[in-house]
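Re: the request from the purification team.
They wanted to know what the chain is likely to look like in 3D before they choose a buffer screen. I agreed to run a prediction and write the result into the notebook, where they can find it.
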Amino acid sequence: MATIDVTHWQERLDALADKHGIVGATLAISQDGAVAAAATGVLNVRTGHAATPECVFQIGSITKVFTATLVMQLVDEGLVDLDAPVVTYLPDFRVRDEETSRTVTTRNLLAHTSGIDGDLFLDTGRGDDAVEKYVAAMADVAQNHPLGATMSYCNSGYIVLGRLIEVLRGGTWDAVMHERVFAPLGLTSAGTLPEEALLHGAATGHLQPPGAPEPVVTPQWGIYRSCGPAGLIHMTAAELLAFARLHLAGGATADGTRVVSAASARAMLEPQVAVPDPWTLGSHWGLGWILMQWDGREVYGHDGATLGQGAFMRVLPDRDLAVGLICNGGKMRELFTDLFVEVFAELGECAMPRPPEPVEEPPAYDGGKYLGRYSRESVTMDVSEGAGGLVLTITSSGPLAETMPQEPQVLTLTPYEPDIFLARMPEATSYMPVVFFTIDDGTRYLHFGARSTPRRG
């Protein structure tokens, strides 16, 4: 069995967390049967309780790969055909677009190609019918793009998948997750509800409001139960890697228990759609997994973000290497980038790509091509001319924005490649691409933060 120098990685986690103002974080590394875990900082600035590897953090949207695994179990049992319309299994499912309601498939939802506006965050209560009520409330949800036209991240689609699981299994998504994933893997820290997190040392999210000298605790601990299938799991970083190792082993646990078939595990890693922005997350999406090429080698993983918490998982199969990082405040993506560059270079001999940087000779562009208002559920993006070039103003709305109000974000767009600009979020040190493109029907789109947003004015 290989060994991992936990002292070294503890030191690197401490140093880089301090560099990026991290409130608390936990790191786990798994390779060739060895697992090492480290933690730094505190769980909550109010209490000052130290973070340890045994503490639970919210993994956010990494939850989606867990939900996708439950769906693939249904495929294994012949209960779901990925290419059959969702209404085959959920006859009452509706969104505003009748054609999408009638024809959208489970594959579309898994790969984020449904076009359904994905950021409806709706509190439907704490009852066991929370997911059912959410899906019923989707009847007036609009399209971001035509079915299958491109990729746009869709939380709502994964909540529909959660309802699919509930109907075909006859239980809540939470209960099915415990029974069919957590239990076979022997996970003791994993849960989906806050009362489960309270049984462990649980991290609280933190934000840093404009002008505030230090991070502050988020107004609420987690998102609504209705959003569970899209992002409500909490666990330790080491147990997160037990799930990663399930997929590294082709769907079987360490003791040989089959959770998902080898064929389904492989199918989850097959590219389904290209991502307009191949830099931020990955170049393609699979059935749940984000797929990427680092140094010419296959890597897969997923990220997650909740209320003041962030999670990152990457897997390098040709070195049997899996790494998970979960944080609760500060410049979390910057920590992820710096730390994973080191881990994958040393343990995988693999160069993780750095985020793009402005070029010395930026390309010329016609600003008029990009001006206008781009909008979707809960977000409006205005591209306008500023004194130094194009400016992107992002205004958030909806229930979560009301919970954590913030001023509109005004970002300068720096030309990078034709139809591609770079923007830096307030307080961030790295850039994110803003990609403009046009689909076959002539509609202009802005892709930012994994979402494709149509121009509407």
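For the purification team: The mean pLDDT is 95.
Please add any questions underneath this entry.
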